[in-house]
Amino acid sequence: MKMLTRIGFWLLVAAVGLFSIFPFYYAIMSSFRSGSDLFTIAYLPERLDFSNYVAVFERQPFGTNIFNSIVVAGAVVALSLALGITAAYAFGRIRFRGRSLLLMTILAVSMFPQVAVLSGMFELIRAFGLYNTLPGLILANLMLTLPFTVWVLTTFMRELPKEIEEAAFVDGATPWIVVRRVFLPLMMPAAVTTGLLAFIVSWNEFLFALTFTLTNEQRTVPPAIALMSGSTAYELPWGTIMAASVVVTLPIIAMVLVFQRKIVAGLTAGAVKG
Predict the structure, then answer these.
(1) Domain with 7 in it
(2) Of 183, 190, 220, 244, whose CA–CA distance to 75 is shortest?
(3) pLDDT 10s digits, 207-266
(4) Rounded distance, CA 246 to CA 241, Å?
(5) Which of 11, 157, 169, 202 could bond to 141 as cystine, CB 3.0-4.6 Å?
């Protein structure tokens, strides 16, 4: 009976793994094919053709698009953590009227679908003169990353011992020093987790990036891939699209694999009291 249970467990693991990995594997295989070969089913590469990867960077400024994504995602992570850590200290350590209502309001913001706030965000960005600029995308993406950053960090902040904070105040520390020198080192697992999740959300964001940019030089990776065109108006360059998708996905997979332990530690931090 134990043997059957173990076999069933590993069969389930294999099925889930195959279901998760196969689409990306097939995208890699398709990126090495071109022409009519793309429309034939093949699960193993017959030859490695890197022409699609060369075409990605020759036909459009894809390197600039990658750089834009790095700038936007990096700035969003930095601002989300800076604002999230200070907000988490206020929500987790300071008692004030309306704290729970304000925290629930922040959570409610993240429940709205992007399309519901698209028109209002567009008017806001246009009023600030940030249309077709990277700062405009940074501002828009903050609406997606800041709510869950504040919630995760607030949960972690509430579980930190009060005695550490009280001892720092006795030694003459200000609240800012307590946050920066006492709590920040202890919050590293949660900060790494939320920072990585914010980076992934901003890196993969499509709707705001498509709506708030006009020129290809200001676009990030997702709309740049979606708007790729072939040699004619009726051609969809599937090989080039697959190659571009592989190029921008591999770094994210590498980051997740490198920080997977910190991600699990950050997500479970504060879940168990004591």
Answers:
(1) 1-60+229-248
(2) 220
(3) 999 999 988 889 999 999 988 876 666 677 888 888 999 999 888 888 888 877 766 666
(4) 9
(5) 202
- In a shared domain, residues 7 and 108: no
- Check whether residue 107 and residue 221 sit in a common domain: yes
**Pairwise CA distance, residues 195 & 189, whole Å:** 10
- If asked whether residues 73 and 32 sit together in one domain, one would say no
The reply to whether 271 falls in a domain is no
Digit-coded pLDDT (tens) for 45-83: 777 888 888 888 888 888 999 999 999 999 999 999 999
Please give the tally of structural domains in the chain. 2
Distance CA 164, CA 166 (A): 6
Place of tokens 């020093």: 177
User: Model-level pTM greater than 0.90?
Assistant: no
Angle, alpha carbons 202-203-208 (nearest 5°): 55
Which residues lie closer than 8 Å to 135 by C-beta, 6 or more apart? none
pLDDT of residue 274: 44
Does residue 263 form part of some domain?
no
Together in a domain, 92 and 14? no
